Amino acid sequence: MARMHTRKKGRSRSRKPASTAKWVKVSKEKVSEAVEKLAKEGVPPAKIGLILRDQHGVPSVKAALGMSLDKFLKEKQLQPKYPQDLLDLVKTAVGMRRHLKENKKDTLNRMHLQNVESKINRLVRYYRGKKLPSNWKYVPEEAALLVK
Predict the structure, then answer these.
(1) Domain chopping of the chain, boundaries
(2) Residues 6+ apart with CB under 8 A from 148
(3) Which CATH superfamily includes the segment(s) 84-147?
C-alpha cells in the first residue's frame, strides 16, 4: 500500500510463515483464557498479540484460536469502544496541539498536524456505522478528553 502523505511507495514489511498452526504448543482453551483475561484488563488487541507471542509462545493468535482476534473479542463482547488505530492518531494529534500552544511559530508541526487530522477523518469515515456511532465526529477539544 502506498504512503499517504509522501511520494514513497512503502512496500517493505515482514511476512508471516505460511503455516504456523504446527508451531503452537499451547491449547486453544489456554489461549482463549489468556486473551479474555488481557481484554478485561483493558489491554488493546495489538498488545494482546504481542504479549501472547512474547510470554506464552503463541506465534499467531489466528492460528491458535481458529479465528481472528477481533472476531473472538466480538464474540465474547470484549471489544474496545474505539478502534486502537484511531485512538493512537488522536493521541498524536492531542500532543501536537499541546506543542503548538507553546510554540506558535512551529509551521512544520502545524503541517504535520493537518496530515494527522486528515488521517483521523479518513478513519472516522471508514469506521462510521461499523465501530463508531453514525453521528460521531472528530472534535479536537473532545478528543483530548477521549484520550485521557
Answers:
(1) 28-75, 84-147
(2) none
(3) S15/NS1, RNA-binding (1.10.287.10)
Indicate the Cα dihedral angle 11, 53, 42, 131, nearest 10°. 40
Residue 128 bridge partners (DSSP): 132
Percent of the chain with pLDDT over 90: 59
- Report residue 71 as a C-alpha cell: 472476531
- Please check whether residue 39 is in contact with residue 3, taking contact to mean a CB–CB distance below 8 angstroms: no
pLDDT digits (tens, 9 = 90+) for 7-60: 777 777 777 766 655 666 788 899 999 999 999 999 999 899 999 989 988 888
Residues 50, 53, 56, CA angle at the centre, nearest 5°?
120
CA atoms within 13 A on the CB side of 148: 8
DSSP single-letter state for residue 73: H
